[in-house]
Amino acid sequence: MYAAEHAAASSHNVKLHSFVDDAQLYKHTNIRNVSQAKQEMIAAVTAVNEWSQTRKLKFNAQVIWLGTLQ
After folding, report:
1. Per residue in 29-54, pLDDT tens?
2. Tens digits of per-residue pLDDT, 50-68?
3. Which of 18, 43, 44, 61 could make a disulfide contact with 14, Cβ separation 3.0–4.6 Å?
4. If we measure between CA atoms, which residue out of 40, 61, 55, 48 comes closest to residue 8?
């Protein structure tokens, strides 16, 4: 993807992994920081969505939350 998408994600402390026609935003955190991580992920998804809309690209967000029993 584009450097601007990476900048939008990293400005919210979220990592972005790009493919040809797909991108994954992800964040690692511990249980103490879940609320902050959630807010940062929402902000990053919003920023990438806004970036996509200005370029007339469709952004289809799907969220998967993974964790351990700890």
Report:
1. 888 999 999 999 899 889 888 888 99
2. 888 998 988 888 888 888 7
3. 44
4. 48
CA dist., res. 3 & res. 20, Å (int): 14
Task: Give the domain ranges of the chain.
Answer: 3-54
For residue 17, which phi and psi values (nearest 5 degrees)? -115, 120
Compute the distance between CA of residue 29 and CA of residue 61 in angstroms, rounded to an integer. 20
Q: Is the pLDDT of residue 17 over 60?
A: yes
Closest C-alpha to 14, from 37, 35, 32, 30 = 37
Give the orientation angle of helix 3-10 with respect to helix 34-54, to 10 degrees.
Answer: 150
